[in-house]
Amino acid sequence: MIGRGYDDFQLFDLWCHDDIFFATRMKSNTVVDIRDLIYDDLEQNGFRESLVIIGSAQKKMENHLRLVEFYDDTGKLYQIVTNRFDLSAKDISELYRSRWQIELMFKRMKQHLQINHIHGRTEQSA
């Protein structure tokens, strides 16, 4: 699952326990506890990776996540947390960029085909 700005830490822990992979953009106010800096070349090659636990003292995750930070073409910094440790930072950034292209496709469909609402048949589409 690739999402944008979710912070349901209990759900993230459940997904980690159930081996469901996710990558999501962190909200700006998310509390991040950096446990280990894996790779820091943000200024030269555009990536930084850390092992983190997210959440406040009252609402903190049990599982470690990987924080991947990168700049887009306009210089905007993105922070993606994921439980995928097998992919490169570049792969994670490409997953997120691909997700954005899907969002743009839906936007164009709604505008050009005059679709106001897209219906789905699963809980996730509600």
UniProtKB/TrEMBL annotation:
InterPro entries: RNaseH-like_sf (IPR012337), Transposase_11 (IPR002559). Residues 4-124 form the Transposase IS4-like domain. Pfam families: DDE_Tnp_1. Transmembrane segments: none annotated. It comes from the Bacteria. PANTHER family: TRANSPOSASE INSL FOR INSERTION SEQUENCE ELEMENT IS186A-RELATED. This is Transposase.
